[in-house]
Please model this.
Amino acid sequence: MTNRLAGETSPYLRQHATNPVDWYPWGPEALADAARRDVPILLSVGYAACHWCHVMAHECFEDDEVAAEMNARYVNVKVDREERPDVDAIYMDAVQAMTGRGGWPMTVFLTPDGHPFYGGTYFPKPPFLQLLAAIDDVWRTRRADVQGNVTALTEAIGRSGRAQPAEEIPGVALLNAALLNLSGSYDQEWGGFGGAPKFPSTMCLDMVLRTWLDNQSENAELIVSTSLDAMASGGIYDHIGGGFARYSVDRQWLVPHFEKMLYDQALLIRVYTHAWQVFGQARWAQVVDETVGYVLRDLAHPDGGWYSAEDADSPGPDGINHEGRFHTWTPAEVVATLGPARGAALIDWFELGEANFEGRAIPSRLHHRGQLDRPSDIEAGRADLFAARQLRPRPLRDDKILTEWNGLMLGALCEAAAAFGRDDWRDAAVRAGEFLAANLRRPDGRWWRSWHQDGMPPARHDALAADHAALIDGFTRLGELTGQARWTTLATGVADVLLDHFFDVDDGGLFTTPDDGEALIVRQKDLLDQATPSANSLGALALYRLAALTGERRLANQADRIMQIQSRIISSAPLAAGLAMAAADLRRAGVVEVVVPGGEPELMAVVRAGWRPNVVLAWGEPFDSPLWDGRQAGLAYVCRDGACRLPVGSAAELADELATASQPDSRREGG
Model:
């Protein structure tokens, strides 16, 4: 027996297709049935790789007693937060307003018209049964109390959509104050920001790296190097197969929740690439190589594009799913694979001698921080452990393809391919760009958010502002990488859609949903960097860069209005404004365009040799931009605001020009 979720494309929703719960997917049918029955909606939100989502599913949604209570008292709706982050964000804001915290699985009770009045996260079976009865009683006997909660919560969750712009675009003083605030939460011993649980905070690290480029601050270098070394040495990094888990439950980055998300790989590839370009540490190049290798090996669709995630759980010898089972080891397993002598060496290298997770050990270099370069015998043993691990039952792979996350990965891979001169990575980036253009773009030029090969049709759900922002950045960088004008032209088309359908013409900033999309109970703006960049921060950054390449000033003007909204986030919540600070820093420094019409190799190598975050590159095929008018092949032109300096023809001359042109007009003193 299956329920309505059997026909959905989301792997997460299909995981619940055989539950005894009478699930609906999100949509008007569920709301109409709740209104007809005059019962609340029980909204459950999660994602396929979520460990605690699986736990609650097993304890509650697969249980006949719980399902009977849910079906009798509620209309039950399942949402994949990755397919519908617009829905998730509204109700997560409500839960956080009620409880002071959030997370997944998320459980929210709604009126039949979709307004929240109570919620929480994970519930075991006994308290969940009590909650089901209590909410039902309140609904039937204290409807006025429900309406009071609805009124307060609706006001709270609508605040982002009513955000007012600051009078000015963020400047040096605001950035310095935000960086000082940010440095106060830096963990001096283990890197990163804040305590446990600890997330990579890649956008903040990237911003700190920008400050080093301005002033060579020892403190900025220490924050970046300590954080990157600690993450790559801990168990959050997969030392056997490459790639990063989503976050660590401890300060030391040792014990992760083992799910591996595409967006984390993209953001971490980017910051390790930038740090390698600035400081030249070979160990960070190794992390980039192994993380890209993981994505291209385990998350790549054969036709291009990348799947979303791998699960935290996998079956053990008992056939039952256990968190981290695929990634952890016992000393006996290592010895059985490698023999006593080689096994002892690998146990010592990866610190597997003592159990640190449910009777097993997580490979790490926690006590040898930053010592990642493996001797040949250790590397050979690692390869053998990887081969043995491949024979284990694998974690579930969430094989839907999301436009936003693919755009993030596309941009990161383009940067890494250019920095490291990897033609194979460039080819993978081109395949991904072609996949997105062929499968996620609608005939009318609009975009879808989600694609799954088993879907009928495979693509669905209107793309959101974050999807468009990530596409602009990804396609722009693909144009810079390949010299093919089609990608820059495509990025411009996406920017047009973003500004036509998401831009708030009254107050500035980008709404999460399009003006002609599904009408939810409020229309929010995605303002805060969380696990992924905020749509407004990434949108502003991408529009500034694209404006410089195309000469279309309107793009930069709209980015300015976005930054007036983001200014208040920078001042009030710098840990959630790393990319907003980067966009403001780019605006302050001014974008420098380097035009190399013939793609002369020595000149191109100079541009790509180091990370200059305010430099964009135009080369190869000309496109409709004044930067190309009258430019000669074999020369390089360094331009700002459409005005180009005299051309240079040697690599040394270009390096000198870039050293001057890349300096901002007003250097930041903080950091």
Q: What stands out?
A: The first strand starts at residue 23 and ends at 25. Residues 553-572 form the longest helix (20 residues).
